[in-house]
Amino acid sequence: MADDRAKLEFFVEELGLLFEEMGERRMNGRVLGYLMLSADPHVSTAELMQELNASAGSISAATRALSAPGFIRRVSVPGSRGHFYRADDDVWGAFLATEHRYLYKRQRLADEVVAALGAEDDIVRRRMANMRDYFNWLEARHRTLGNEWEEYKRQRDAERGDAG
């Protein structure tokens, strides 16, 4: 059992490091890792603080950051005033959707800049048009990836006999 716990702790810490390498807070990855490994229907903020040896503030910041893109969900527990969370069943699908929104926003920004440029701004217009077109192209690829991911999951689940 101790060996299993060490493997779980390793995953939590490694996901924290992965998030840090991506420019995110390490605690965000640690919280996500812990919630992904939890078979419980929900985990309390207090449990996260204890198990991750973290402050209330760092857990609060991490849960807010992870809730916004849909990686985790806040769960209501009748009769309790505490905060409870669970990982989304498809964290990485949510990650892809978050990237898609990011790309769309960048494309819209470039659109606005191109529209505001005068005819004399040829060099700048070309750069901004390339930015807009790149994000448009990349966003279309992300949309395709998202659709392919959903189809892949449907086929995988049908082969396994899973409901979802």
From TrEMBL:
This is DNA-binding transcriptional regulator GbsR, MarR family. The keyword Transcription regulation applies. InterPro entries: HTH-GbsR_regulator, WH-like_DNA-bd_sf, WH_DNA-bd_sf. Keywords: DNA-binding, Transcription, Transcription regulation. Signal peptide: none annotated. One of its GO terms (molecular function) is DNA binding. It comes from Jiangella alba. It comes from the Bacteria.
